[in-house]
Amino acid sequence: MYTAYDQWTTRLLQFSATEKPAGVIGNHSSYDEAATKIEKIRTKPNDDNPFFTGTASALRYLRVLKECNLNNAGIERAQRKS
Q1: How far apart are the C-alpha atoms of 5 and 3, rounded to whole Å?
Q2: 2-19 and 55-81 helices cross at what angle (nearest 10)?
Q3: Integer CA distances (angstroms), 12 to 4, 48, 81, in order
Q4: Mean of all residue pLDDT scores within the chain
Q5: Residue 75 CB burial class (10 angstroms; 0-12, 13-18, ≥19)
């Protein structure tokens, strides 16, 4: 599972490096404050979209995603050895 996810994040980072995403909508809404951002869009529709945080932020998010996956794989390997 971790290998496939690592390959996916690698491809996504490569694609994102050339396509320059304006932001990321993650699947952990409690970590990226999605509910607050959605409320901001609802109440202030003419303001900047809070999900569009810029390319640098989007790429950083994807690198962290990749590193978390590799860390979790390492933890699982260590636990199997114990």
Answers
A1: 5
A2: 170
A3: 12, 25, 31
A4: 92
A5: exposed
Q: Which amino acid is at 2?
A: Y
Tokens 């993650």 belong to which residue? 26
- Report the chain's C-alpha Rg in angstroms: 16
**Which tokens in the block code for residue 68?**
């978390």
The tokens of 61 are what? 């998010």
- Spatial CB neighbours of 27, under 8 Å, sequence gap ≥ 6: none
Instruction: Give the DSSP H/E element, type plus range, for residue 82.
Output: none
Token representation of residue 81:
């050895």
pLDDT digits (tens, 9 = 90+) for 39-67: 999 999 999 999 999 999 999 999 999 99
